[in-house]
């Protein structure tokens, strides 16, 4: 089961790096509900919203995203991966690190994401990269 999970995680990372929205979608829950919580605390609550968010992000050819798995727990039908990723909006920009927690569930023989939570390690750096004004 762990090998299958590792493969699913690797395939999901590859879909993000390749900006492949169809591959990305294939890793999401087959339920309508998917909480995706982004760095500013906003929670998207549906698969459709998460797909739209990533579709827009994938249109930008300039960013880089490098992920490494810090910790994982794999059960019979539920697994969790804690990821630290480095994001740069473009090559010359200051990058920042974020925590990313994915919760997967085994659905119809495939590991699928049922929860996605991002937490910026340096919110000010994230805000600058995202063009958010800090008050």
Describe the structure.
With 135 residues, the protein is α+β, with helices and mostly antiparallel strands. The chain has one domain: Nuclear Transport Factor 2, Chain: A (Roll), CATH 3.10.450. The chain is 30% helix and 40% strand. The protein is built from 4 helices and 6 strands, in the order ααββαββββα. A hairpin with a 7-residue loop joins strand 4 and strand 5. The radius of gyration is 15 Å and the shape is globular. It starts with a helix and ends in a 5-residue tail after the last helix.
In short:
The protein is of the alpha+beta class and 135 residues long.
Major sheet size, sense and barrel closure: 6 strands, mixed
Q: Give the N-to-C terminal Cα separation.
A: 47 Å
Low-confidence stretches: none
Report strand %: 35-45%
Oligomer: single chain
| Shape-level CATH architecture | Roll
- Overall number of structural domains: 1
Strand order in space, largest sheet? 2-1-6-5-4-3
- Using the coordinates above, name the CATH class: Alpha Beta
Give a count of the beta strands, DSSP E runs of length 2 or more. 6
Helical residue percent band? 25-40%
Keywords:
135 residues; 4 helices
Q: Which helices and strands, and how do they pair?
A:
Blueprint: H1 2-17, H2 21-25, E1 33-37, E2 43-46, H3 47-58, E3 64-74, E4 78-88, E5 96-107, E6 110-120, H4 123-130
Parallel strand pairs: 1-6
Antiparallel strand pairs: 1-2, 3-4, 4-5, 5-6
